[in-house]
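Reviewer 2 asked us to include a model.

Predict the structure of this chain.
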Amino acid sequence: MSGVPSLALNTGHAIPQLGLGTYLVPADDTEALVSDALGIGYRHIDAAAAYGNEEGVGRAIARSGIPREEIFVTTKLWNDRHLGDEPRRAFDESLSRLGLDYVDLYLIHWPVPAVGYVHAWHTMEGFVAEGRARSIGVSNFLVEHLDRLAAESDTVPAVDQIELHPAFQQRDVVAAARARGTAIEAWSPLGRGRYAVLEEAPIVAAAAAHGKTPAQVALRWQIQVGNIVFPKTVSPARLRENLDLFDFVLSPEEERAITDLERSGRVGRDPNEVGVSMR
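Predicted model (structure tokens):
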């Protein structure tokens, strides 16, 4: 699998540390992109109901010829589906769109207190018991949200998928999650182009030293600090480039210099400001 390492989740299942993100990938392009990714060695696909492209992900998996158990599939519960029977309906709809009997990981997309993410979490525990979700986790949860789940459930999230890049590392969330055995997944690993991460001196210097691109260095940093990462691209060349991270190692000094780029530079939404209808 192109040398991609796996990490053990607290559920006993393994997750490839590098995958493909499908956020903002047009529905009409998703099947071809995921097919290309699977063809060159990706085995981890991150999807979501809100992305509107689960059908394309599912078609690509079906036509790949790769045994289902070799592909790690994540999808997510949207903000307006937390109450009553909605989590179960939403999950059933996602499985139907994906054409799958189970997903490897099902996440609460955002912690929207007004609509009861704890209720959704308890419903999702049932999906694990039924064998239709191998693991469950959360996305965009801050320390207070993790604390609330811990107070109201004995099930520890397998992952917390959060915005994380060199300029915004959320060290308090990472520490709280890992103390409980929750793995960290990094979305927006390159800062979405909203700050010049690829022009930062430590990243540029490491890229020159290792004969890699700045993007590869920034992604390799994520791998070395123990995060799971799934960069999104629609470029075939970048798809291959993002997979080519495992033939070099950043030195401790290079890794530390990139870590020192933290400056609380959030580029996405603050989870406490996200509402039911946010897209």
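The chain has a mean pLDDT of 95. The beta strands are 6-8, 14-16, 20-21, 44-46, 72-77, 103-108, 133-139, 159-163, 183-187, 228-229. We have added this to the supplementary material.
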